[in-house]
Specification:
The protein has 385 residues and is an alpha/beta fold. It has one domain: Rossmann fold. A five-stranded parallel sheet has the order 2-3-1-4-5. Helices cover 55% and strands 7% of the residues. It is built from 19 helices and five strands.
Amino acid sequence: MLPNKDDYINDAKAQTSLSDFGDPWMLAHIDPLVAALNSQAKLSPEGAYGAQHMITTALANRLRHVDMLKQNPEILQEQVNISAVLTGLPRTGSTMLHRMLASAPTLTALKWYEAQNYLPLPGEQPGDPSPRLEAAEGILAYMLDKIPELMSIHPMSTTQPDEEVIIMGQLFSSSMIESTYFVPDYAAWLSEQDPTPAYQDLIIILKSLQWQDKSRAGKNWVLKTPGHLMALGTVLKVFPDAKIIMTHRDPVDTVPSYCSMEASLYKLGSTEISHKQIGEFWTGRLKEWLDNFMAVRAKAETGADDSRFMDIHYKDQITNPVENGKRVLEFAGIPMSAEIEAGMDGWIEANRREHRAPHLYKMEDFGLDAREIEEEYAEYRDKFL
């Protein structure tokens, strides 16, 4: 059994010699998380160690970040401009679109190594994130040793743009948790919580990252994660100037593909989560995300927020990625240039799908049936596909 909340808090304080968590809202998320990890995740000894390390490290990072803000109050004066927020079900082409857009010299995005450690590591010199890069390479090497098929499913690089869901997971407030550990009870509990504090803290962390990297001055941020579907109404409020780019693909394709990805990810913490459990949970969970999107979108269509949405379809993204990128940039108010177009072209050429091994899976392995998925997602399919 994993320890209780107080043990993690005390360990983080001892590790950092700090005690101020700032607004302690996130601490209330630990008990329900630990309860689900103990009762549902079927953790292996290695998985239990990883979960404990994840919680303690997240708390230690919180302590260190609050301290950094005290030492450098100018961080809070940074102006973070969020131009676009990409979202959509997993496996809909949003990663390709996100990374291609972030190659534009006037845009910036969170990098994978920054998501793992959003603060400089002890002893790190300003402007030289080498210690974090080295740490991230170690994390990625461990993941690929355990699940080598991951690169064919979701290509990863320590310096490529990645999802802020990883940072929000360190606030115990994102889909990263349920994507890493099988914790349906925690996922359900999290859906009932107000996501506003997590997004407010995300803005502060982005300010911190912008302050750390002076080359980001004046650039516009592009965010991306499917998990934003859980809190889309909050996204509209906390990023009032951002355009929402929704990527679409038939759930008959995306649901089985994501279940296969989850079957790989869960192996980091457990070997006992069945494909049937994965299929049952994620079919319903992804439907919840889309239902929330549909409700927020319907409300937006009756008001001014409707003009903030743009729809990108998977087939268009695969066949005409650069043209889609131009459309998104224009929609987000980012002036196009030959340099930007060349950057997007270059990214596409260097990251073609045929350069990777195929992602192989069968929907039947997860107890899934195409006709049943069509019926369950009928409303979404009718309106957006």
